[in-house]
Structures are given as C-alpha cells and as structure tokens.
Amino acid sequence: MSKVRIYTLAKDLGVENHKMLEILDGLGVSYKSVSSTIEEDTVELIKEILAEEAAAAAAQPAQAETSSQRATPAPSSGAQAPSAPPSSQGAGAQTAVTEAPAATATADEVPHRAPVVTIMGHVDHGKTSLLDYIRKTKVAAKEAGGITQHVGAFEAKTSKGRIVFIDTPGHEAFTTIRARGANVADIAIIVIAADDSLMPQTREAIAHAQAAKVPMIVAINKIDLPQADPEKVKTDLTQLNLVPEEYGGDLVVVPVSAKTGEGVEDLLEYISLTAEIEDLRADPKGKFSGVIIEGKVDKQAGVLATVMVQEGTLHVGDFLVVGENYGKIKAMTDSAGARIKEAGPSTPVQILGFSTVPASGEKVQSAKNEHAAREVIATRVDVRRDEENARNRRRGPRTLEDIMG
Ligand code: GTP
Ligand code: MG
C-alpha cells in the first residue's frame, strides 16, 4: 500500500472531505484538491487524530460531535459508512466518527442545495437509457393522478441526498441556456459508450463543460457489451489531456451499464462527492431567482414552463417576470407530476400561468404584485428601446464618416 486519495480516505473513514482537509492543513501537508494523494504515514497520523478526537468526544457524552460543521444535504449522512465491514482497516476511528450525528449549520449559514446535473454525449451512447435507469430506480413512483407530463428535469433521491437531473437533450439545453448567460448545471456527466469511445459529439460535450467551467464526470457506458473496451476510452481521454484518476490525473471516470445498472450507484456517489466539494448553497428564504428550462404550449393546459429554482422559494400565486412578459403562478407541479404549493432551491417545477411561451435559458424573477411586475417590464422595454435607438443613431453617421474617411 502506498498512496491514497484524500476523498477515498475520507470515505473509508466516514468523515467529510472538509474535515479531512482541515486535518491536513493542521499537519502542514500540502495538497491540490481532494483528488490529491497522500502518503501512508500521513494516513496513519490522520487515523490517530480522529481516534483522539473520538475519544475526547466520548468523554463528553452530552455534547454533539462538532467535527464536521457542514449540514449535509442528506438526512442519512454517513449512512454508507457503518455498512462497511467492521473488520475493515481503521475501524476504531471509523465507528467513533461515523456515529456522530450530522452537525447542524449555524443559523446564519446559507444551507446546502442539491446539485443540478446535466448529461451529455454522442448520439446513441446511452444518455436517455442512463437517465431512465436512474429515474426508474431512484424516483419514487408517485405519478399523481397518472399525470406523465414530460418535465425537462427530474429529482432522484439517493442515500446521499437529492440529485436533480436535467433531462432535455443534453447539448441543446446546455448550450441554449448558457448562450443566454445562465448556468443551470453544476456538474456535467459525459456519457461515452465503451464500444465506440470518443466521437465528435463527445468532444463537443467536453468542450461545452470546459467552457462553462462545470466539473465533469465521465460515465463509460455499455460495459455489459462483450466488445466493450473501457481502457481504450481512458487512453483516448488521456490524449485530450483529460487524465483519469487511475492514471494519476483528476478526471473521475465511472464504468456503468444503463442496461444492467452496474456502476450506477457509484456514479451517483461520485456526483454527491463532487457536489460536496463544490459546496453548493442557496438560501430558500432569499430573493427568488430561477431559469427557464423549457416552455411549451399544452393543448389542454395552455402555456407550461419548466423553471429551475436557483435561489429563494416560489409559491403558487407569485408574480413572475421573464424577459418582457410576466405571469402569475396558477398551478405548480413537481417533476413527478404532483401538485405543490411551494418550491425551494434546486427544484425543477412546471408552472402554469404564463401567457406567452418563455424561451429556454431566460432568467426568471419574482415581483411583489402585478403592478411591480409591469414596472419591471416597462423599465426593460425602455432600456431596450434606448439601446436600439443608440445603435441606430451610431449606425447612420458612422457609415457616412467611414465612407468619407
Ligand atoms: P440520443 O438521444 O439519440 O443521442 O441517444 P442516447 O445517448 O440517449 O442513447 P439511448 O439511451 O437512446 O441508447 C441508444 C441505444 O443504446 C439503445 O438501443 C439502448 O438500448 C442502447 N444502450 C444504452 N445503454 C446501454 C447499455 O448500457 N448497454 C447496452 N447493451 N445497450 C445500451
Ligand atoms: Mg436520448
């Protein structure tokens, strides 16, 4: 045994990554990220420190464990660790630390929010199948009243908390939304079929994720196929300067099969881990802001818009402003089709109440009442007209000057 990655050790010992970094800082050990490796000697030191802390905590039975300050998104934080075989190494420190209750955040701290994940990749590499598998196994079947309206996003419940997936054709959603200056995705999953390796749209997807500066996780799919060659995918990635962790780089690569489900649990775990490192937070009590994922007209219901809540909380009855239009939320459903009255950060909701179809990627704001909504729009119209006029004025004389000059 030589070196070990920080997050692997954190997982093995059942402590949060932040806690692990704190200890390393205390020891004066340098690292680049939680993907960095540390020496075995350091591992031993860390175990000793944790064991001491656990002993100290045990001596004060009534005190809540404060070793990890962050409120984890999942109520079942640490639920994985106790299931590790008791004989696994470092068990002494492990049990003591993992039995600590999830520490509570101080009241003024902005709470964590669920990660929003988008799936991209080449045609037929299995994006939809992978999402379908996750949806089937991780989304409670609560299709209220049999409503199966397609919502361009869904929420998966995992042992590590909620994960929100954007379920529109990857590139399209990602690029149109980003082109309007909004970033909805926190993490990009690049799906690469193990029998096909890197293809043009895979490279495109990688470029999109890099341009958006969103962390990437590669899912090598279709590993159940006899002709699957995951090693080739890894080598090909390395040639793009994306070096998988097992080759000493930082890229997380998870082999999966959307058909058998193999590796999907690992993928979800890596998503949670990445989210934890990203430290995603949003205030449900803050001012509302969101983004349109998609808008459409339903023959029966009328205009429907899928909105991703990013900050604050939406309530039925709220007035929303999108571009130069506004609407009042008449009804709201969650991604499983159930009617809801309010929705907090990282929640995709379908909204009934707009009169015109909003475009993907448009930013959504709330207004106190109809009057306020109209005022916001009037200001926007004024600004736009001023800009148009200024542009037209500039265009006239300048062309003349250009000609003269
Ligand atoms: P587009 O939306 O057209 O870009 O394709 P996609 O990436 O969503 O791929 P999709 O999920 O539609 O899968 C394409 C084909 O591959 C289908 O026939 C799937 O059944 C098959 N497929 C997907 N994942 C797997 C897998 O893990 N194993 C095997 N054997 N087949 C798979
Ligand atoms: Mg598809």
Automatic annotation (TrEMBL):
<feature type="region of interest" description="G-domain">
    <location>
        <begin position="115"/>
        <end position="263"/>
    </location>
</feature>
<feature type="binding site">
    <location>
        <begin position="167"/>
        <end position="171"/>
    </location>
    <ligand>
        <name>GTP</name>
    </ligand>
</feature>
<feature type="region of interest" description="Disordered">
    <location>
        <begin position="57"/>
        <end position="109"/>
    </location>
</feature>
<feature type="binding site">
    <location>
        <begin position="121"/>
        <end position="128"/>
    </location>
    <ligand>
        <name>GTP</name>
    </ligand>
</feature>
<protein>
    <recommendedName>
        <fullName>Translation initiation factor IF-2</fullName>
    </recommendedName>
</protein>
<dbReference type="GO" id="GO:0005829">
    <property type="term" value="C:cytosol"/>
</dbReference>
<dbReference type="GO" id="GO:0005525">
    <property type="term" value="F:GTP binding"/>
</dbReference>
<feature type="domain" description="Tr-type G">
    <location>
        <begin position="112"/>
        <end position="285"/>
    </location>
</feature>
<keyword id="KW-0396">Initiation factor</keyword>
<comment type="function">
    <text>One of the essential components for the initiation of protein synthesis. Protects formylmethionyl-tRNA from spontaneous hydrolysis and promotes its binding to the 30S ribosomal subunits. Also involved in the hydrolysis of GTP during the formation of the 70S ribosomal complex.</text>
</comment>
<keyword id="KW-0342">GTP-binding</keyword>
<keyword id="KW-0547">Nucleotide-binding</keyword>
<keyword id="KW-0963">Cytoplasm</keyword>
<keyword id="KW-0648">Protein biosynthesis</keyword>
<comment type="similarity">
    <text>Belongs to the TRAFAC class translation factor GTPase superfamily. Classic translation factor GTPase family. IF-2 subfamily.</text>
</comment>
<dbReference type="GO" id="GO:0003924">
    <property type="term" value="F:GTPase activity"/>
</dbReference>
<dbReference type="GO" id="GO:0003743">
    <property type="term" value="F:translation initiation factor activity"/>
</dbReference>
<feature type="binding site">
    <location>
        <begin position="221"/>
        <end position="224"/>
    </location>
    <ligand>
        <name>GTP</name>
    </ligand>
</feature>
<feature type="compositionally biased region" description="Low complexity">
    <location>
        <begin position="73"/>
        <end position="107"/>
    </location>
</feature>
